[in-house]
Design a protein that fits this description.
Layout (H helix, E strand, L loop, with lengths): L2 E11 L3 H12 L6 E14 L2 E15 L1
Antiparallel strand pairs: 1-3, 2-3
């Protein structure tokens, strides 16, 4: 039987929501082992002068506890 834990992570990117999600997982993987999945809970963007300047995601990362 495995035990799973979920953490919530906020991330941003100037490129896309997908890139922000990848950055969140990459950064979390530096200190969290056995990441199993990522769930994008919320997406938002910053707008300046009618242009999107930053994509933001709120993700839940699930990992197995050893």
């Amino acid at each position: 039987m495995s035990v799973l834990k979920v953490i919530e992570v906020l991330s941003n990117s100037e490129k896309s929501w997908e890139d922000a999600t990848k950055k969140a997982v990459t950064h979390a993987a530096r200190s969290v082992k056995n990441i199993r999945s990522v769930y994008v809970q919320d997406q938002s963007a910053s707008v300046v002068n009618g242009n999107i300047t930053e994509f933001r995601v709120n993700v839940k990362i699930t990992f197995e506890v050893e």
